Amino acid sequence: MIYIGEQKKQEIIAAFLQKNAVDKIFIIGSNLDFELNNAEFIKFSDVIMYKFFYRLLQEISRNTLVILNECLQKTNRHDLAYNCIRRYVLQTSHRIIFNYYPIKQAEEDFMILWDMAQPNPFLKDSYRYISKFNDVQCGKIELDLNINHIDVDEKFVNEYAKEKIKIIDSVNKDPDVIPRRLLKFVEKYKNKKQGGLDSLSQIKKEMNVGVTSLPVDQYYLSQIYNFKKGVQNVVEKIQCK
Amino acid sequence: MSKKYNVNKNVLEAAKERIKFIFDEFENIIVSISGGKDSTVLAYLALLEANKRGRKIGLFFLDEEVVYQNTAEQIEYVMNLFPANTNRFWLQIPFKLTNSTSFSEGQLNCWEQSEKKKWMRKRKADNILKKTWSHQTKVVNKNKGFGFYDVLYNFELSFLNTAFLVGLRADESFNRYRTMIKNPGYKEVMWSTKRDGGNFTFYPLYDWGFHDIWKFIGENNLKYHKFYDFAYKKGRGINEIRVSSLTHEKSFKSIQDLPEFEFETYEKLVNRIQGIAFAQETAKNKKMFQVKVLPQNFKKWCDYRDFLLKTYPDETKKHIFVARFAKHKNNEYVARQQCKQLILNDYENNFPVKNNEDPIQEKIAYWRSVL
Description:
The structure holds two protein chains of two kinds. Chain A is an alpha/beta fold. Chain A folds into two domains: 2-141, Rossmann fold (3-Layer(aba) Sandwich), CATH 3.40.50.10810; 144-232, no CATH class. Helices cover 41% and strands 17% of the residues of chain A. Chain A has seven helices and eight strands. By secondary structure, chain B is an alpha/beta fold. Chain B contains 14 helices and eight strands. The termini of chain B are far apart. The interface between A and B is small, with 13 and 10 residues.
């Protein structure tokens, strides 16, 4: 079962444990904010490690409950971490998947969670062609965006242009560092003008962000709007059962 | 045994059923063996079925001469598992093999009579020492001459309506997966491909995993190539633990371990062809054969490519590269691949260059316009 949005996790798990004979619990991803008996927590970044991989393959049996909590952390559906997680969950049908947001960036990201709930690791259905998602429960999903408009002077606009050239010239292998570095540069300036602002690059339930007229801010802002729209579309698709 | 593709049966049961099906459908069956673990398992399963039915099957091994001594021993072992049910197709005929380790000797003439004194091993009288086909020999790549794949192709063509069994497994790579199950070859069988001459290739172990193979070998007490134990003890990853030839463009890296694993084979190989000692030292060097890092003297792959081309030692082959590169785009992405071709002396074009725009530059241009 996949649980999206606000959920009473403790109650869901307790109800599951009452119905099913479970001898051991593995929590993968982020830890839960309450205690569970006979449970072991494994960080998302550790799932690919040999020391966990082979041990878990031996220890996860049909009576093991695997809780995947906030495991949607990368956008590549074929990422090694997801492959490992699918290996783990294949050994048991007792799985509970919690993720507040159903996507990471694009709507197709929901299929990463969907894959984790499927019994067959080789089927990779396309998001577009699935018209019905069973066994997915949606709770309330918040994304409140408080935008503070911040003016920039001409001097900083020139500095921005210089910094952009400097960053582009320094790129060797990964061009995707360009917007991240540029945003960091602009956010330093924004925080000097107005403190207590959240970064535009990290999605949170409540965001208090500063936005200038500079292209990098506009780019990240549009990403947040796209994300919001994507979440809305996925939830609508899930609820059209 | 794991369960894959077939929900209700394990891969061993499925493979046995597939082999039975092939025996029911074909009179002539030939299993290709390499000395590796997969083909050993496949040959064993096919021989069990042949033994049960009182039939004979062919075991085919194309001997590249420059192989581990242990490979030859393993082949001999497989050939003698069920001798009464085995037709021995151990080919030791002359053909050309790519030698990526040398500019002065870009090809090895395996089993060439004129080089008999330097042969890695003696040939055996009960092996096949002359070509088996009567048709005009077909050669695909003129630059290369009569090569490894030409022998396979011509050997296959000397048979009619024959099932060739190959121990490829889908989980080795996506290319293999695609090759095997893209389209049905024989009737509706997805794990088969159609070949010339009414022949078919079948992949009965296509859904086996790495661990399935080892479980089967362990349970049936089969002998296996010693390189696996050696690589395992060295702590190699699953994908690196494989038995292959020693000199061609995709396998020469195994020379690095050779002195440690089979010193005598290494000694013979050093005397047999050029470039071995150098490749032994630098096969996995990122600046050398890996061609992943630019040497210090160069700032751009294009400059390095120009240097390599200018100093390419074999004037008779230089024009092949010049003509080929003239058709390519001139960017860093393409230039790195061209450097790899030059370093590996790949005039045969075994590693074709992907002639695309530089993806890094494309992405930078995108960010330049957006930001």
